[in-house]
């Protein structure tokens, strides 16, 4: 009896970790990343530059520093619009605004710092890259304008889901429609995958 209790006490943490890790990994799928390199006008990389990322809607910010190769990374960035500032002693402060991060998007944001005082600011309006070459994942954000203005007759959550590329309702039982959706909650196929292969998370 005592040995059985010992075995269970050893097994319990392992089972807990197995149940916990898929939840954590699923939660990370709803966020994006911002990465890039900071250099001077000659192209030489700058290490130790401070990079501050600020949510333009909430004002919440986080910062990091470039490494020895001039690179930096922000992970688990919630979908929103951001501004990024780049600072290093002996260079003008570089400020880039309107950086949009969507679900599962990797945004490459490089910066070239001009020589000058840190009290001087170079303001740059960021433009989204035409082709994302850093990730094979796709994601989309349904904004408030879509929710308010799209002519969907039942305001069903899964109707919005089916407006995304590669998403369609389950067919074959007579209850579903390609354009409206299935009567079975959550029965959608993403890029040809099984409906049971979908994962739904709320607030992480």
Mean pLDDT: 74
In DSSP terms (H or I, runs of 4 or more residues), the helix count works out at 3
Which spans have pLDDT < 50 for at least 5 consecutive residues?
Answer: 14-28, 176-182
* Biggest β-sheet strands, sense, barrel: 5 strands, mixed
> Gyration radius, to the nearest Å?
23 Å
How many distinct beta strands?
Answer: 11
Helix and strand composition category: alpha/beta
Give an overview in words.
The chain has helices at 2-28, 144-149, 157-161; strands spanning 32-39, 50-55, 61-65, 71-77, 80-87, 93-101, 106-108, 111-112, 121-125, 167-169, 188-190. A five-stranded mixed sheet has the order 3-2-5-6-9, with no helix packed on it. Strands 1, 4, 7 and 8 form a four-stranded mixed sheet that branches. The model is unreliable at 14-28 and 176-182 (pLDDT under 50). The protein is elongated and about 60 Å long. It is an alpha/beta fold and 204 residues long.
Quick structural summary:
The chain is an alpha/beta fold and 204 residues long. It is built from three helices and eleven strands.
List key phrases describing it.
3 helices, 5-stranded mixed sheet, 204 residues, alpha/beta, 11 strands, single chain, 4-stranded mixed sheet
How is this fold's topology laid out?
Elements: H1 2-28, E1 32-39, E2 50-55, E3 61-65, E4 71-77, E5 80-87, E6 93-101, E7 106-108, E8 111-112, E9 121-125, H2 144-149, H3 157-161, E10 167-169, E11 188-190
Parallel strand pairs: 1-7, 1-8, 6-9
Antiparallel strand pairs: 1-4, 2-3, 2-5, 5-6, 10-11
